[in-house]
Design goal:
By secondary structure, the chain is of the alpha/beta class. The chain has 24 helices and 22 strands. Helix 2 (about 45-70) runs antiparallel to helix 6.
Length: about 675
């Protein structure tokens, strides 16, 4: 018989059947086709329910018959067929009803799960209770003694559980990998490694074929997962690679520390294996990746960033319905702040920056368009006192996040006056404008270089921490600072510089072989900044836990290795103001974390505003560096620091335009 179809022909879901006269010739069914047929039928609700109910009824009938035959042989022999069939119909009704009551046939439970085992046990207990009550009627001449019912329940329950486990095991059936599948060694026999092997084994034509497992836990040395054996720990990596012919090592450690991943990556490369990692917990939670989607290690994997948890409720209560202003909104931290604040539903989100292109980019990321014609984007410079006061008077924000600052250490060492005018005076301008408009929450974004500072950048940011504490005492508001380190991928960061140099073929420049730095992801840092705003006490600096400092040379080597070519690494020496290892806490600061496991809360000595308003930006660079260091470190709180007069160049009017006026809107108080 000829049958025509429209469009592209599709493979039939079921085995084809052709009819010739009265004969039906069924195509030969391979094992795999039969399995597909059973799976397709099992996905249809009614055939599956009928099959499960029928099986459970047969299991109970057989169990009861065996129990009755074993415990009441003579009475069983005298039993006629009519009472037997009446009893069988009653048992069928009871078994089906009790199974429905326990939820066995409603698709509630995963096959082979603990919940399904509990449901089967509940159904068996309920059925046994019903049979004990109705037994004299259903069993005719047979006495319904408890042992007969319980014996049948044990046999039926075992049969029901056994069949369901067999169905579960059948679903775990491994499929052959693709002929070109890459043989891999999986490091990690925990949940992540087991899930990875399971997904690859269940995936027909998978691109990777697990052939061995490595784990440092001696208790797992005899373990097999889907037939893949554990062959030892990391010390046996080379031996396992040679024995199995594997070419790739997949590091399957969920949330593994950066040090572990770095060590395993180096060990794999030494053994001639290509290192891969499973997606991060963050990627899996957001649905951006699957466990089997292994990939090359990224810098963030090598840093081993943890998943940051925040009290979303407290943060949302602080932000929702409030007017929020962000300075430096176009920078890496400022832009991420705006994105996360926007999702918390503020009444208004005012984004202030002096860079129009940066404002365009952040509005585009929030709205999907960047017309720059709304009041939410404000073009202003924090060094312009009149303009800043005007903005605050216009919008009267409730909460301010101050992220605007100069951050490049070498430039500020060369031009300390710019650090004074932007970081110190600019912050003071924003603080005073906020105080004048009754802002109750002010969060100053600081840096780890402010802890025991030795650079102009660090000293200027330490001064802003102290000025924020001073203004908190004067206003009674929650004015506080948040301190953290380098942000991965931010403009001008060390990682961006090294990546650009490596991509260009080198040389890659590193200041010192032992230099180490703290790193955070932008969204991770902002999560903790928002949490700090909710838990911080007035006048404190909240120091974020950034994990372990990472050696810059290790990052440089990783980046050069990823290029696949020889790239030179050149050591240039530490620059003025740089440390080998940055500090999280300064001298006398104690690591106390009363409210969040990743946030230290440290009191800050206040600094009176008149200690900085009289500084001279036209002084020579050396004098200005010394006086900034004194302002940052001196806690006497007495007197006004001045710099010896210097020979000033340029017209007087131009000099006065850049000088911070000594007169302030808020007169200085004792601090």
């Amino acid at each position: 018989m000829h049958t025509s179809t429209r469009g592209k022909s599709r493979e039939p879901a079921y085995p084809s059947i052709t009819r010739t006269g009265d004969r039906v010739i069924e195509d030969a069914l391979t094992g795999r086709v039969r399995w597909q047929l059973l799976r397709s039928l099992s996905k249809r609700p009614w055939p599956r329910v009928v099959a499960e109910v029928g099986y459970d009824v047969v299991a109970w009938m057989c169990g009861l018959l065996v129990a009755a035959r074993a415990t009441d042989g003579p009475a069983w022999d005298r039993m006629t067929m009519a009472p037997f069939w009446y009893g069988a119909i009653g048992v069928c009704a009871i078994v089906a009803g009790c199974g429905l009551a326990a939820g066995l046939y409603r698709g509630r439970y995963l096959r082979g799960s603990r919940d399904e085992i509990i449901a089967v046990s509940q159904a068996a207990a309920l059925t046994s209770a019903c049979l004990l009550v109705t037994g004299p009627v259903l069993m005719g001449g047979l006495r319904a003694w408890p042992e007969r019912i319980l014996g049948g329940a044990v046999l039926a329950g075992a049969a029901m559980l056994g069949a369901r486990y067999a169905a579960f095991a059948a679903r775990l059936r491994s499929w052959p990998s693709a002929p070109t599948a890459v043989r891999i060694i999986v490091f990690g026999a925990g949940d992540a490694g087991a899930q990875l092997i399971h997904r690859l084994a269940m995936q027909s034509g998978a691109a990777y074929q697990p052939v061995a497992i490595l784990d440092d836990d001696p208790a797992k040395r005899r373990l097999r997962i889907h037939g893949v054996p554990v062959l030892g720990g990391r010390g046996q990596m080379a031996e396992a690679a040679a024995r199995t012919g594997a070419r790739v090592l997949v590091i399957a450690i969920a949330g593994g520390s950066g040090k572990v991943i770095r060590d395993l990556t180096e060990a794999a490369e030494c053994c001639g294996l290509v290192p891969k990692v499973i997606p991060s917990v963050r990627e899996l939670l957001t649905g951006g990746a699957r466990i089997e989607g292994v990939r090359d290690p990224r810098i963030s994997d090598l840093l081993g960033r943890r998943v940051v948890t925040t009290d979303v409720t407290s943060v949302r209560e602080r932000i929702t319905g409030r007017r929020v202003l962000v300075t430096g909104a176009g920078g890496s931290i400022g832009a991420e702040l705006c994105r996360q604040l926007y999702r918390l539903g503020p009444a208004e989100l005012i984004m202030l920056d002096r860079d129009e292109s940066a404002l365009h980019a952040v509005q585009l990321s929030l709205r999907g368009h960047a017309l720059l014609d709304s009041e939410e984007t404000v073009l202003a410079d924090i060094r312009d006192q009149r303009r800043v006061r005007e903005v605050f008077a216009r919008f009267r924000p409730d909460i301010v996040f101050h992220a605007a600052a100069l951050k490049h250490l070498p430039l500020l060492e060369s031009f300390p006056a710019e650090a004074l005018k932007s970081n110190v005076w600019g912050t003071l301008t924003v603080l005073e404008a906020a105080a004048a408009q009754g802002v109750q929450v002010f969060v100053n974004i600081s840096t780890d270089k402010a802890a025991d500072p030795v650079s102009v950048l660090g000293c200027s940011k330490r001064i802003t921490e102290r000025l924020t504490a001073y203004m908190s005492a004067r206003t009674g508001g929650a004015y506080l600072s948040v301190r953290f380190g380098n942000v991965l991928g931010s403009r001008g960061s060390v990682l961006t510089t090294l990546s650009t140099q490596a991509a260009a073929g080198g040389p890659v420049t590193v200041t010192d072989p032992q230099v180490r730095r703290y790193f955070m992801l932008a969204d991770e840092a902002v999560h903790l900044v928002l949490q700090a705003a909710a838990i911080g006490r007035p006048g404190e600096v909240l120091v974020l836990d950034m994990g372990e400092p990472v050696r810059i040379l290790d990052i440089a080597r990783r980046l050069t290795a990823s290029t696949g070519r020889e790239v030179d690494i050149v050591f240039t020496g530490l620059r003025p103001g740089e440390k080998l290892i940055e500090d999280r806490l300064g001298p006398g600061e104690i690591d106390k974390r009363p409210n969040h496991p990743l946030i230290s809360q440290v009191p800050v000595p206040a600094l009176r505003t008149d200690r900085v308003t009289g500084l001279d930006p036209d002084a020579d660079a050396g004098s200005l560096r010394r006086v900034l260091a004194r302002c940052a470190r001196d806690v006497s709180g007495v007197g006004t620091l001045t710099i010896p007069p210097q020979a000033l160049a340029g017209p007087p009017a131009a000099r006065e335009a850049d000088r911070r006026p000594a007169g302030r809107d808020l007169p200085p108080h004792g601090g």
